[in-house]
Amino acid sequence: MRIELVKDESNHTAGWTIIGENEDEKRTLGSMRNLLFWGLKENVVEYDGMSADPDDPNYVAKLHFATRGYTASKKAERRE
Questions:
Q1: pTM, entire model
Q2: Spatial separation of the C-alpha atoms in residues 13 and 6, rounded to whole Å
């Protein structure tokens, strides 16, 4: 999977494009698109944190996104 940054006239990052390079990645992109497009109420996709690079904590290794219902259930589990 490849990510290309979208830049505005001032060369500031204005978004990104994710490109699936094989059939599995294209299916994954379809699932991501469905969550973003059809997500309502507890199915809205939200930012769910990040993981630092284990070799250099100054860099982000992973960005996490999940549905509102999933993140709420994880928080409830942590409280129990």
A1: 0.73
A2: 6
Task: Output the CA–CA distances (angstroms, integers) from residue 46 to 32, 54, 56, 63, 66, in the order listed.
Answer: 12, 24, 26, 11, 6
Same domain, 56 and 24: no
Task: Confirm if 41 and 33 have CB atoms less than 8 A apart.
Answer: no
Looking at the structure of the chain, the number of domains it has is 2
- Close Cβ partners of 19 (under 8 Å, ≥ 6 residues apart): 1, 2, 3, 4
pLDDT tens-digit series, residues 13-45:
999 999 999 999 999 999 999 998 888 888 899
